[in-house]
């Protein structure tokens, strides 16, 4: 095809993009002012436009006989031209292609690694004098090489520089109990990254150099031992062997020698990293090493436990972890036992049970568990380890160590890992002592002098000189210890240097919390129950029946509570050992312990009697209440005395109160001051004395002061009653737990049920609340089994639990108070909380509601966990609470009807909200076998999402998101098919708000589970970012910002199972849309359906394609280009095409979606005429109207809008 020499008449926008010439690039503007530089830029831009206009452009006419012209392919040897077909015309515009400079040089540019220069700079910074810069350089190199290291050509060079840093860096700091070397640590991690890409030979060379840094035998060291260099070498070695396990056969021998050398080093931090080096390759080391080598490492590790300088030795934890890991490997135990007995090795662990570092204490327990699993208990288990583990339980503050100690105790007692004879020998002499120390009243110091075992070499026993940061002043300490018994005081003084357990031993609540103390006591009762279960019932009846009965009838509430817990834990352990059942649900029906022997029967009868007595009258007093009652007595006496001192009532008319309270003396010793006495003081006595107050000038002030004292007594009495209620809840809940576990229920169930439910409602301690929840599950089992002989209370219990679950109004709103219809409550609540920095103080009622809700949630989770797929069969009321009201109120095609019912009777709406709350809370712990049942409820929840009530929509969105988080695939399919179409519903804003709110909660909750469905969500969300409703627009914008980050990850996710062919096709369509959205070059060509009286250049056609793409998906955009390049023409083209298409579709469908709707062009007044004439000039189907002039003129024009379309 030849180019014509003449230039055709240009359209109003025939130009191309500006290309900067080399001449322009070489102009030096340094000496010009800002004004001169701008003038020169404008001049160059103008010259560039004139140059581009002189380019050769040919308009070809390819008219043929066909009415619809089809261009014939034109063969060109090299693609040097662009062809642009003209709309509804036989012509093409032919333009020469521009040479892209980047295309010719790109290949050369790609030959160099793009991060070469920055890595060079970072490698230089590795040797900066400031440690912060060295540290930052190491982090930067690590990040770059981790992501792009494979293309780097200087891996060996980088490794050499890192080795140099290891040899030169001396910076170290100490945090808590261990050294922190940020430069060496980051550089060793970087070396690990580099070694991943290096050849085996290069890795071997690096390994050899690391060994030289560790051995320090090179002449360069001049006989010196530099711990920082050895520490750095071991750090590098740790990461080297961890990342190149494929070369372990080459590296293991040298590494083992270096580890042994490091373990024998005098520096503790070197020992710590040495042990950590061998941890990742322990299995490989054992497999590849000789028996002598393995024995050498093991004995070196055991020797490390002896060579310790203080109780802050950081290596101890790592050494013990490595010991445990070594003994887990097959054959290691036999190798060690060939030369040495564990009875000599294990006692080396004893001093570390109460080590200052929590990681060490945990490592000791893990090591013992490993030895138990190896079946070697007969060599080393004796009464010392039993005592040490029990001591852990009574004084340990950290929950994870208490839990691990219980696991070790379980292994010692009921897991059949220790011969029963050894168990009896280890516990027989100490069981009574353990009972006594466990039952020590809270607040009284523990008698460690008589009951604790202190192994030789234990840290802090008169040897350590550590100072407690929380230690009180000498005066306070003296006052504190003055009230401590002599035996306990001597124990505390002996342990003055070792204050790890000082708070727990002294029961000092400025150092510990009540929850920590109760956790330890409950763990001790569990251990006692396990130990008792190993003894025959006859022995227990002879030795401990009276002890337990005394505890169950004690006036100390704590002893009653813990005594009942010990019985309960004994029953659980017996079920496990004799019936192989974890709980009553899995136990055989004949496993009713109270009927198996007189010992449990006697205990059961005593506890049932306690529960039944509690229903008729409360206990007279508990010792825990004595101090409160004494204070009330003092306040009451002061109140009565004030009548004489302040109100001038004669002294002989002031009654005298009893001097002692229950607990200080027996009732037969004379009248005692009780809470009833206090009640009479503030009522009858107060009123009687008030009448005797003489009238006078100061009477009013006296009465005011007396009433203030009365209010103080009333407040103290309220505290007394509240404290007593909490104590009784604890006592009777633990008693009910023991009764249920023994398997025989009283004739009347109310005392048991009430005790358990009160604990679930009001118990503040989470662990005790969880125990009550477990008791409730066992109680439901017993009631189900006894269904034929008595009325089954299970339905009522579950109904009450669901009611409790909905008691917190911050989680379950009240419809009567929240009848707002429009809006999205989720974002309103989020905005409110973000603006309110200070959390409002909760009222007592709100705190109680939160406790009740927590207890109900724990209980329902426990039911679902215990009963598994049978939960709906065992407690059908639960399924009814979840689904019945949803199905009744929101039947198929009945959303408007449902809203009408709720409007007439708001209680129906509240029941729906409650059902949604219960379903939201329960679905995460339902068995997979019940997922189909839940899926049947999903369509009803989808319909409730369209309710006119905002609060119902919010709860439905949260519920659907919770279901989707568990039953992801099936629920998401239903959401895509049933809910997402509502997001584009133009007729009902409530439907759009509900769908948008659901997507918001899905994005917040599902995390990566939402990846396969990202494409389905993001396109509808994108279209709603310009919704007319503010709340929809805001929440969709937030969702889009979160979803767009997931789009690059979506393509690599496999298709979720069960996705239909229609959904897959729909997803591919949405993917195509997104690719066009993110890359305008992929936008499909738009054929303008009407004739345009101008020749469109290629870039102009691309602009029209992009505008058509936006129009198709209801998006918005801004068409930007330089002046004179045809933006007006492109806009006219899309307006003409869109109006033509709408008119044609309206003729076909008569749909209101395509009804007459004029377009509006807003422009400066000086351009309105220009636009008007351009529209008339370029197309025939648009009818423009000039809407200009003053208000009166524009008012006259409005009536003619229907006759125009622009």
Automatic annotation (TrEMBL):
Which branch of life, at top level?
Eukaryota
InterPro entries (UniProt xref): ARM-like, ARM-type_fold, Mot1, Mot1_central_dom, SNF2-like_sf, SNF2_N
What Pfam families does the entry give? DUF3535 (PF12054), SNF2-rel_dom (PF00176)
- Provide the GO MF annotations for this entry: ATP binding; ATP hydrolysis activity; DNA binding; helicase activity; TBP-class protein binding
Q: Which UniProt keywords apply?
A: ATP-binding, DNA-binding, Helicase, Hydrolase, Nucleotide-binding
Mot1 central domain location is 409-881
Residue ranges occupied by any SNF2 N-terminal domain in the UniProt entry: 1099-1199
Q: Where is this region: Disordered?
A: 42-73
The record ties this protein, via PANTHER family, to: TATA-BINDING PROTEIN-ASSOCIATED FACTOR 172 (PTHR36498)
What name does the UniProt record give this protein? TATA-binding protein-associated factor mot1
Q: Which organism is it from?
A: Rhizopus stolonifer (Rhizopus nigricans)
> What is the taxonomic lineage of the source species?
Eukaryota, Fungi, Fungi incertae sedis, Mucoromycota, Mucoromycotina
In the UniProt record, the gene name given for this protein reads: MOT1_1
């Amino acid at each position: 095809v030849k180019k014509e020499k003449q230039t055709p008449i240009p359209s109003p926008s025939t130009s191309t993009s500006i290309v900067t010439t080399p001449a322009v690039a070489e102009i030096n503007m340094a000496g010009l002012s800002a004004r001169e530089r701008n003038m020169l830029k404008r001049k160059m831009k103008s010259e560039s436009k004139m140059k581009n206009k002189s380019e050769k452009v040919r308009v070809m006419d390819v008219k043929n006989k066909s009415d619809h012209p089809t261009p014939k392919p034109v063969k060109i040897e090299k693609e040097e031209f662009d062809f642009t077909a003209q709309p509804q015309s036989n012509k093409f515009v032919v333009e020469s292609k521009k040479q892209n400079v980047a295309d010719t040089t790109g290949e050369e540019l790609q030959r160099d690694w793009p991060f070469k220069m920055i890595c060079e700079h970072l490698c230089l910074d590795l040797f900066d004098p400031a440690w912060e810069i060295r540290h930052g350089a190491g982090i930067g190199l690590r990040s770059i090489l981790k992501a792009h290291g494979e293309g780097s050509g200087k891996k060996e060079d980088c490794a050499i520089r890192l080795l140099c840093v290891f040899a030169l860096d001396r910076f170290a700091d100490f945090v808590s109990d261990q050294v922190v070397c940020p430069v060496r640590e980051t550089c060793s991690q970087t070396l690990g990254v580099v070694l991943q890409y290096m050849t085996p030979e290069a890795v071997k060379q690096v390994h050899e150099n690391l060994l030289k840094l560790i051995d320090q035998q090179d002449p360069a060291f001049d006989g010196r031992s530099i711990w920082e260099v050895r520490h750095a070498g071991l750090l590098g070695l740790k990461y080297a062997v961890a990342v190149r396990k494929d070369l372990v056969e080459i590296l293991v021998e040298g590494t083992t020698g270096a580890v042994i050398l490091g373990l024998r080093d005098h520096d503790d931090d070197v020992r710590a990293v040495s042990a950590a080096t061998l941890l990742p390759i322990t299995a490989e080391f054992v497999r590849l090493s000789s028996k002598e080598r393995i024995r050498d490492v093991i004995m070196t590790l055991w020797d490390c436990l002896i060579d310790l300088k203080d109780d802050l030795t950081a290596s101890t934890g790592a050494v013990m972890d490595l010991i445990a890991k070594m003994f887990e490997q097959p054959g290691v135990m036999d190798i060690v036992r060939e030369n040495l007995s564990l009875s000599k090795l294990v006692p080396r662990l004893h001093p570390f049970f109460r080590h200052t570092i929590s990681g060490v204490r945990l490592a000791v327990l893990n090591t013992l568990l490993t030895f138990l699993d190896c079946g070697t208990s007969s060599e080393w288990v004796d009464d010392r380890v039993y005592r040490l583990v029990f001591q852990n339980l009574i004084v340990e503050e950290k929950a994870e160590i208490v839990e691990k100690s219980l696991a070790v105790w379980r292994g010692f007692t009921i897991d059949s890992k220790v011969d029963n004879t050894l168990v009896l020998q280890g516990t027989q002499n100490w069981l009574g002592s353990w009972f006594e120390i466990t039952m020590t009243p809270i607040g009284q110091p523990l008698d460690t002098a008589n009951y604790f075992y202190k192994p030789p070499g234990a840290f802090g026993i008169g040897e350590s000189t550590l100072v407690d940061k929380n230690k009180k002043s000498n005066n306070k300490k003296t006052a504190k210890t003055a009230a401590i018994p002599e035996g306990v005081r001597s124990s505390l003084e002996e342990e003055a240097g070792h204050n790890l357990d000082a708070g727990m031993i002294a029961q000092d609540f400025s150092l510990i919390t009540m929850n920590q103390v109760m956790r330890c006591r409950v763990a001790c009762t569990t251990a006692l129950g396990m130990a008792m279960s190993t003894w025959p019932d006859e022995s227990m009846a002879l030795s401990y029946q009276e002890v337990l009965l005394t505890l169950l009838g004690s006036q100390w509430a704590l002893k009653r509570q813990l005594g009942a817990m010990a019985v309960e834990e004994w029953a659980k352990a017996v079920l496990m050992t004799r019936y192989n059942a974890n709980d009553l649900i899995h136990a055989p029906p004949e496993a009713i312990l109270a009927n198996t022997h007189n010992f449990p029967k006697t205990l059961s009868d005593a506890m049932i009697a306690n529960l039944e007595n509690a229903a008729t009258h409360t206990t007279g007093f508990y010792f825990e209440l004595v101090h409160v009652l004494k204070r009330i007595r003092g306040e009451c006496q002061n109140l009565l005395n004030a009548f004489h001192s302040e109100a001038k009532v004669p002294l002989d008319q002031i009654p005298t109160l009893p001097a002692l309270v229950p607990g200080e003396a027996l009732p037969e010793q004379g009248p005692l001051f009780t809470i009833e006495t206090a009640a009479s003081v503030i009522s009858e006595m107060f009123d009687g004395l008030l009448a005797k107050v003489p009238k006078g000038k100061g009477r009013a002030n006296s009465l005011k002061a007396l009433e203030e004292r009365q209010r103080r007594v009333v407040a103290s009495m309220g505290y007394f009653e509240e404290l007593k209620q909490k104590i009784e809840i604890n006592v009777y809940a633990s008693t009910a737990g023991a009764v249920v576990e023994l398997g025989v229920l009283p004739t009347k169930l109310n005392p048991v049920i009430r005790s358990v439910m009160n604990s679930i409602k009001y118990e503040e301690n989470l662990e005790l609340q969880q125990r009550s929840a477990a008791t409730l599950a066992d109680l439901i089992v017993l009631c189900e089994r006894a269904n034929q002989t008595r009325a089954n209370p299970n339905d009522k219990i579950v109904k009450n639990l669901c009611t409790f679950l909905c008691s917190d109004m911050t989680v379950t709103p009240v419809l009567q108070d929240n009848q707002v219809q429009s809006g999205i409550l989720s974002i309103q609540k989020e905005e409110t909380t973000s603006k309110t920095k200070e959390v409002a103080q909760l009222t007592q009622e709100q705190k109680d509601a939160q406790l009740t809700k927590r207890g109900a949630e724990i209980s329902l989770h426990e039911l679902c966990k215990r009963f598994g797929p049978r939960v709906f069969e065992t407690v059908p009321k639960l399924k009814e609470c979840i689904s019945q009201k949803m199905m009744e109120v929101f039947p198929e095609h009945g959303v408007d009807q449902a809203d009408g019912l709720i409007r007439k009777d708001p209680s129906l709406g509240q029941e729906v909200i409650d059902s949604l709350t219960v379903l939201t809370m329960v679905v995460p712990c339902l068995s997979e076998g019940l997922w189909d049942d839940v899926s049947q409820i999903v369509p009803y929840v989808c319909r409730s999402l369209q309710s006119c009530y905002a609060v119902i929509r919010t709860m439905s969105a949260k519920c659907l998101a919770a279901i989707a988080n568990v039953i992801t695939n099936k629920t998401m399919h239903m959401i895509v098919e049933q809910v997402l179409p509502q997001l584009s519903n133009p007729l009902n804003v409530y439907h759009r708000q509900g769908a948008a709110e659901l997507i918001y909660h899905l994005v917040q909750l599902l995390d990566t589970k939402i990846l396969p469905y990202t494409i389905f969500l993001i396109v509808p969300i994108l279209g709603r970012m310009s919704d007319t409703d503010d709340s929809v627009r805001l929440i969709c914008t937030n969702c889009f910002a979160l979803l767009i980050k997931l789009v690059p990850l979506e393509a690599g996710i496999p298709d979720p199972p069960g996705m239909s062919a229609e959904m897959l096709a729909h997803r591919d369509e949405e993917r195509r849309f997104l690719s066009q959205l993110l890359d305008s070059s992929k936008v499909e060509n738009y054929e303008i359906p009407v004739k345009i009286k101008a020749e469109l250049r290629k870039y102009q056609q691309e602009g029209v394609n992009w505008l058509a793409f936006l129009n198709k998906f209801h998006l918005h955009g801004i068409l930007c280009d330089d002046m004179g390049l045809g933006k007006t023409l492109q806009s006219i083209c899309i307006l003409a095409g869109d109006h033509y298409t709408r008119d044609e579709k309206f003729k076909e469908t008569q749909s209101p979606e395509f009804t007459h709707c004029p377009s509006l062009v807003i422009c400066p007044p000086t351009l309105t005429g220009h636009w008007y004439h351009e529209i008339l000039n370029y197309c025939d189907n648009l009818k423009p109207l000039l809407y200009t002039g003053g208000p009166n003129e524009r008012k006259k024009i409005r009536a003619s809008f229907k006759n125009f379309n622009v």
